[in-house]
């Protein structure tokens, strides 16, 4: 039987600002990527998100990003591999403290936003991030864009990796995501998103924005928790995947 993990970025509220419907999403996903305070989140939000995910039986992952609250971590920064190593190590350690205090176990690491996309293309950055994860805990799973340098670096570092695909994003011919600033980067139609996910999981490919067939591997599907109607979409996606004979479960 085919199987796939449904992961969601969450814990992205900050102070008085509420982003995403975390508790509703936890009923539909199998893995939670929890912000670590740099691009979003704060200590109280981190603890609440960790506690809720553990209570729901959802695998908990660290979601480290660039130190850019104003830009939500989606703006590129000129950082060195050494800085990337330290940023990722710091954030994994912060989230892991909350996970341990709640008697849980950290399951995976998934970089966020610009850091994720930069590491998908830059092998030096990818190697630094993979090394940070491996030296922190080699049993952690590294989530990254399917076919990316980050996954290649993770495998070289001896990590288990999860090839990630996106329900609500379009692709370029080289397998990269269409930059958010370009027209057509985000899919807003639920049915189109679901059809894209089913195709990626069952057929191992996706149509690029200009109509080319792009091969990829789909171990885990990202659902953005800050998207409109994310909880309803996650629930419907899970139902449709099961109807297609695809088991929804966390990556091991």
TrEMBL record:
Keyword presence, Transcription regulation: no
HAMAP family recorded: PxpA
Reaction(s) catalysed (UniProt annotation): 5-oxo-L-proline + ATP + 2 H2O = L-glutamate + ADP + phosphate + H(+)
E.C. number(s) listed in UniProt: 3.5.2.9
This protein's UniProt keywords: ATP-binding, Hydrolase, Nucleotide-binding
Organism in which the protein naturally occurs: Paenibacillus sabinae T27
Gene (UniProt): pxpA
Subunit annotation: Forms a complex composed of PxpA, PxpB and PxpC.
This protein's name: 5-oxoprolinase subunit A
Annotated family: Belongs to the LamB/PxpA family.
Gene Ontology molecular-function annotations: 5-oxoprolinase (ATP-hydrolyzing) activity; ATP binding
Role according to the record: Catalyzes the cleavage of 5-oxoproline to form L-glutamate coupled to the hydrolysis of ATP to ADP and inorganic phosphate.
Biological processes per GO annotation: carbohydrate metabolic process
Pfam family, one: LamB_YcsF
